[in-house]
TrEMBL record:
<dbReference type="GO" id="GO:0016491">
    <property type="term" value="F:oxidoreductase activity"/>
</dbReference>
<dbReference type="Pfam" id="PF13561">
    <property type="entry name" value="adh_short_C2"/>
</dbReference>
<keyword id="KW-0560">Oxidoreductase</keyword>
<dbReference type="InterPro" id="IPR002347">
    <property type="entry name" value="SDR_fam"/>
</dbReference>
<dbReference type="InterPro" id="IPR057326">
    <property type="entry name" value="KR_dom"/>
</dbReference>
<comment type="similarity">
    <text>Belongs to the short-chain dehydrogenases/reductases (SDR) family.</text>
</comment>
<dbReference type="InterPro" id="IPR050259">
    <property type="entry name" value="SDR"/>
</dbReference>
<protein>
    <submittedName>
        <fullName>NAD(P)-dependent dehydrogenase, short-chain alcohol dehydrogenase family</fullName>
    </submittedName>
</protein>
<feature type="domain" description="Ketoreductase">
    <location>
        <begin position="7"/>
        <end position="187"/>
    </location>
</feature>
<dbReference type="InterPro" id="IPR036291">
    <property type="entry name" value="NAD(P)-bd_dom_sf"/>
</dbReference>
């Protein structure tokens, strides 16, 4: 049988990029996948890709930065076996020029959304005595940036949540891990990060960018029963960037 047969998964920000790849792979491995994001058209496209792959998917519109939306999302989806906190934004700005609005938005989506969605869904996992939570952080959690302080801080915060939740829920059979991508060739990364993104080829030891599918494989591993003893880890999927 397939690894995630009979399991229910929720993937945030699954309307594009890495989140979409995670949603499709979880569905291919048998999970019923709830796809969430703000953009209905793109969410439905993800569901179509899931169905083309022979899986089962549902789209629920939600802005994870909005706590009312998070509450509605949880009501609509119900309990899950796997939660992937992937939704994220990555605007860059020098610190003195950072607007309060953008600062708040980065923390609202990357940290607060992750926090309160997990807070709402973890109790049912704890009650069942099983479940997996995966935070898609970034190697930014472990690296500095001269132009991305807010983003980097938010991703460090996500890994801090991972470590604390691994202790808080681990004793109840609920494992919590981060998958930290390096430069991954998604449309958003290419268009929003631009030349800096392209220049990573020179510093990544394997000499190329990663793919959304490669990140999805790592997420599936830490979410699967095969990773039963992996808890509180930050798995870098970065071609060796952090150790370069
Ligand atoms: P992306 O923009 O395609 O994916 C982010 C998704 O989150 C999008 O679907 C977006 O619509 C959604 N989202 C944004 N704000 C949201 C909100 N308020 N509510 C719900 N959904 C929201 O980019 P991606 O490259 O696929 O990135 C996915 C994740 O991986 C992000 O958390 C990003 O920080 C992380 N990451 C990406 C890279 C990379 O190089 N691509 C590297 C490290 C980490």
């Amino acid at each position: 049988t397939k690894e995630f047969q009979g399991k229910k998964a929720l993937v945030t920000g699954a309307t594009s990029g890495i989140g979409r790849a995670i949603a499709v792979r979880l569905a291919e491995e048998g999970a019923t996948v709830y796809v969430t994001g703000r953009r209905a058209e793109l969410g439905k496209e993800t569901v179509e890709l899931i169905e083309q792959a022979g899986g089962t998917g549902h789209f629920v519109v939600a802005d994870v930065g909005d706590l009312d939306d998070v509450r509605k999302l949880v009501q609509e989806v119900g309990d899950v076996d796997v939660l992937v906190n992937n939704a994220g934004i990555f605007p860059f700005s020098p610190t003195p020029e950072q607007s309060v609005e953008t600062y708040d938005k980065v923390f609202d989506v990357n940290v607060r959304g992750t926090y309160f969605l997990t807070a709402a869904l973890a109790p049912a996992m704890v009650a069942k005595g099983r479940g997996a939570i995966v935070n898609v952080s970034s190697v930014a959690s472990q690296l500095g940036s001269p132009v991305g302080s807010v983003y980097h801080a938010s991703k460090s915060a996500m890994d801090g949540l991972t470590r604390s939740w691994a202790l808080e829920f681990g004793g109840s059979g609920v494992r919590v891990n981060s998958v930290a991508p390096g430069p991954i060739r998604t449309e958003a990364a290419v268009t929003q990060v631009g030349e800096v993104f392209e220049s990573f080829v020179e510093v990544v030891p394997v000499g190329r960018h990663g793919t959304a599918e490669e990140v999805a494989e790592a997420v599936l591993f830490v979410a699967s029963d095969k990773a039963g003893f992996v808890n509180g880890a930050v798995l870098n999927v970065d071609g060796g960037l952090v150790v370069a």
